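Everyone, carefully examine this protein record:
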Amino acid sequence: MKRIKKAAALLLCLLLIAGAGSVQAAAGDGFLAVPEVPTVTFTNKENTTPDLNVVKYVESLDAAYPAPADAEFTFVIKVDGELYKRQEYELYRADAPGKAPELRTTTRNGSFTLKAGDRARFVYLGAGKHYEVYEETLPENFVQIIPAEGTSVTGTVPPGGALASFTNQYQPPGDPGSDPEITRLLVSKRISFPTGYTPPVAPDFRFRVTLDGKPYESKPYEIYSLDTGLSVGNGVTTGKDTAEESGAGSGEFTLKAGQQAVFTDIPVNVDYKVEELLEDGWWSTNDVTVQEGSTESPAVTVNFTNANTSFIVTKQLEDNTKPDKEFTFTLSKEDRTHWAGAKYYLYSTKGERLDDKEYQTNANGEFVLKPGQAAVFFGIEPGTLYHVSEKKDPQYSQITPNDPAGYTDKVVQKTVEVLPFINRKEETKGVLTVTKHLMTEDDIVPENPEIFTFCIRKGVQADPAGEMQFEPMTGVLYQINTGTATRAEKTDDKGCFTLKAGETARFESLLNGTYQVEEITEGLSPEYGIDEEKRIQQAELTVKNEAGVEFIFENRFAPAPLSIRLKKTGNLESNVLRGAVFRLYREYQNDQFFGEVLPEKWDTAREFEGYRTDAEGIVTIENLQAGTYYLKETKAPEGYQLLANPLEIAITRNGSKLEATVNSIKPSIGNDGQITMVDKNTIGIRIKNSRNFTLPSTGGEGVAFLFAAAAGMAILLMILWKKGKVKIKNNEKGES
């Protein structure tokens, strides 16, 4: 088995190496290098402050010619339309992972610089602040591909912060080792969409290629994924025949969003032109639909970025909770009239498409969102003026945007802007109580009353799966009501507190929200049973229940059950007997047994063969309550006798305890004796068995041997008697 495992591990390693080699080869062919992800990491678990992070990504057109590591990229930042000049920011270096950031200041022109993989963090820019970031200058041989060249990243800072990412592609100037007469033409297609959002389904985008003024017809090309750098197919540009059949022009081809077409064996110093044939409802983010020039070695690359998304409206609560509640918004045109029939898709604020429906604003320009949802509007042309407002909800206050009127006089940009609406729940307060009830059988009072432990938590936000997350309420004051008096206490560093049976903990002046109380059963005596489904309870404290919420926890006390620990041995204690089988019954009359006791949770559909001793000669029967039981041995180990009579085990209740006798014998304390108390809840019984004595079969060799041995013994005794070595007692005279 060890040799098999080693071989499997070696095979897995070889497969991983081969896979890595294939990916490297795809990038090394110069078709497309996978973008280099910044090596810096965000030190905070999740953005909790209204910061703005600007990140620089760099990819190489040809992996054989990586981008210069010292290349610097200059950015300009504006806040609320004004240059953000002489403002401090934190610089996280890609070449210094894990180290503290450098403190830098923007110039008087609001500019700052980054290298590949660097991150600039503008701390606490402010929720509701509008920002715009764009690249001012590019180093030689670099082109901006995300966002499209000549465009900026804009948005409004939410309370949790915002991210503006830029990707540049390095295009090497020439390859001394390549054929100077041959080059490649690379055509890339991207969609402009906010970071983290999954673009909706897009059409096949059409292009036309001409070389030296002539359609580049019937020419093959390879298609690569811009995400992975791997080949995903191939095609051929239309020729005269195929063009007529398809209704297209010569030299045309198609790409999907996120793909790149690679044409090889292109002559150098030839005029080229690549034209995008825009689909209805789509536009170029940089107003460029035709790119042309002269071919040069080692490659010529052209990038086209399109968009049909106009803007995004998001809905969140300050505490990131997601109650099942709808908020109403109104979209208005430039003249403040309601914008009816505006189309949008429904997304989560994490960027996932929620369904495949196409929605429209109603006749009043209204649409609804729940917390954690986003409306992605599309088809509204860049340059269009619009307004978005939220209908006032009396239970919530709007904190983003700062203007109660919402976002006014907004203009559709070439890149997609996100408009966050964030609300705070009105701070109404209420009372929360936790009560412990103890149920007992026959009014039995525990000798040593248990102290019960609880932990209280408050809902703070939902996780990626949409489930509420809770944080412990540490150091919170509460009152204990014992029925006759009260006392003040405080929760510990885990939000936990204790109660006795009949006591109530009262928490006052709690903010509205979702609360969770858990009873801790670790270390709790098994005598105290609890409904596991009610061990963790939660409820929402809202305006509707100002009287508060009440949590009631009930435990049922029952004396701890007893167990029988049976050990089967031969005449010697060390001779343990395996395979002895016992059955336990509730009744025994006239040598008949009734009411067999099965193991707890035994599947009655299966036949029960009895309790069997293990390799140490031990079998344990658990969970016995008060009553009389009869233990019968039904199968003895081979060569040993069965127990002649059953054992009578009488279990009685003494206050809150169970006690037992075995055949009217009270167990002793310790390990001496046949009937002992192993621990306070376990009775130990030792049973010794004698071996059977069986004569050999009649007439067999064994019988002959037995008689021969007897005769020999008689002769030996006679000889010894004659020699005076043995004296025989005279029974009549009493002499020897």
